[in-house]
Design goal:
One of its GO terms (cellular component) is ATP-binding cassette (ABC) transporter complex. Helix 1 packs antiparallel against helix 7. The chain has a single domain, classed as MetI-like fold, CATH 1.10.3720.10. The N and C termini lie far apart (about 75 Å). About 85% of the residues lie in helices and about 0% in strands. By secondary structure, it is mostly helical.
């Protein structure tokens, strides 16, 4: 009986190792070819939206400020998953059909734009008013002030929270699996549905997410340390 248990346990261990090793490459491919590209594209577009929205919030136009407030309030006040479902499952009911990748890019970009606009707005407001006044006194236009004086300093201030936002987006992309986009977690679901080893496969996916986030955190720390060299 004892020998039988050892034999059975050995077989189970070999089975788990085989599942782990056979699943690893497809999951990594899902991360490299789908998860990370989605993250970079959505974050890049979202960053552009964030800058535009932050400038609208700081503009002298009540209309622009109002539009920006409504956008930020709408996105921050509704769940990301609901936004993705509206784009992918809801819009076809009014004749607008968008494929999973574009739907995910739109959803994540709008979300990043709203949240990061507050980061950028706060970074711009953190610049002392004296620097604005000094730039005006030497005849700089508003655009020149932003480009030469304000944005370089605001960038340094906003790097840490924006980096955290980027790392968070890497994990949030797993929600795209629910609109059938084949990112890493979707691959894990497909693999687990075939071998029924949900705990093992999902834990493996979690491990890969963790490794990616650790690597990105290392890069974030290096960037922040480099920027600190220029702080007096």
């Amino acid at each position: 009986m004892y020998l039988s248990n050892i034999f059975t346990n050995s077989e189970m261990q070999e089975k788990y190792i085989d599942i782990f090793t056979s699943s690893f490459l497809p999951l990594v491919k899902g991360a490299l070819y789908n998860t990370l590209p989605l993250t970079f594209i959505a974050f890049g577009i979202g960053l552009v939206l964030a800058v535009i929205t932050a400038l609208m919030r700081l503009s002298g136009s009540k209309i622009l400020r109002g539009m920006a407030r409504v956008y930020v309030s709408l996105i921050r006040g509704t769940p990301l998953l609901v936004q993705l479902f509206i784009i992918f499952f809801g819009l076809p009911s009014v004749g607008v059909t968008i494929n999973p990748l574009i739907s995910a890019v739109i959803g994540f970009s709008l979300n990043m734009g709203a949240y990061n606009s507050e980061v950028i707005r706060a970074a711009i407001l953190s610049i002392p008013k004296g620097q604005w006044e000094a730039a005006e006194s030497i005849g700089m236009s508003h655009t020149q002030m932003l480009r030469r004086i304000i944005f370089p300093q605001a960038t340094r201030v906003s790097i840490p929270p924006l980096s955290n936002s980027f790392i968070g987006l890497v994990k949030d992309t797993s929600l795209a699996s629910l609109i059938t986009y084949s990112e890493m977690f979707r691959k894990a679901q497909e693999i687990a549905s075939q071998n029924y080893e949900f705990l093992l496969v999902y834990s493996e996916a979690a491990l890969i997410y963790w490794i990616i986030c650790v690597a990105l955190t290392f890069v974030q720390d290096r960037v922040e340390n480099r920027l600190e060299r220029y702080v007096s």
